[in-house]
Amino acid sequence: MARKILLTNDDGIYSSGIHAAYEALSDLGDVYMVAPATQKSGVGRALSIFEPIRVFKTRVNGVEAYAVGGTPTDAVIIGIYAIIGERPDLVVSGFNLGENLSTEAITTSGTVGAALEGATQGSPSIAISIEVEDQGDKFHFGFMKKDFEVPKKILKKIAGRVLRKGIPEGVDVLNINIPRNVTENSEVEITRLARRIFNTSVEERFDPRGRPYYWIDGKEFQDSESGTDIHAIRMGKISITPVSLDCTSRIDFKLLKRWMEV
User: Fold this and answer.
1) Per-domain boundaries in the chain
2) 4-194+224-261 has which CATH code?
3) Which of 125, 133, 127 is nearest to 101 (CA)?
4) Contact in structure between 231 and 223 (CB atoms under 8 Å)
5) Which listed residue, of 39, 85, 227, 229, carries a Cα 20 to 30 Å from 207's Cα?
6) What's the pTM value of the predicted model, to 2 decimals?
């Protein structure tokens, strides 16, 4: 019986990244492409619970796909329970155009959020992103011309390994980031999450009536400590970060109990 793979993203069903991922995965099993109808970057694991979710069956570049009028998390849930009808053998979220690094990305990225939802539903999951040179490309709408040949080989190799061997115990999601100048000889590093990737700032502007409005902005940190995902990408390495759904702090609970009593 063919393996079932749920493919999604946060860049939208018409993104060139998701179609490159489909090409990478199509030989590994039955791939179901279920993704937001429009760009949904930065929504994390947001879930639509106060409005109905519309789904439209379509074909994009000759491939059957399902456009979901909701978030990446919605797409995963709809894909599993309304389209596939059972838990898939693998959930893949990507290729995302733009890196997803540090603890900030884990909590804000729709790409990673979709993979986390896949893991929550019981499937081994991969989030895979490609570093971009122009930060504006992270919010590109629709198809963008890009060379995906090496990233496709990387995804096919890792996805195939997960399907054959399962995901390592204690790991729920593999968060993969590929440097923009990746080659077939690029080194792979197993990394931990850096603390932050952005130096957050807020820009105040004024509309034509003189009323203030704000843009949340921030420059990326150019590097981080050795062993982190940011450092690996800045060194031109492929970063693979094992992520767990359990966010419980790894501390002696007795310490916290004593802290509460003082």
Assistant:
1) 4-194+224-261
2) 3.40.1210.10
3) 127
4) yes
5) 39
6) 0.92
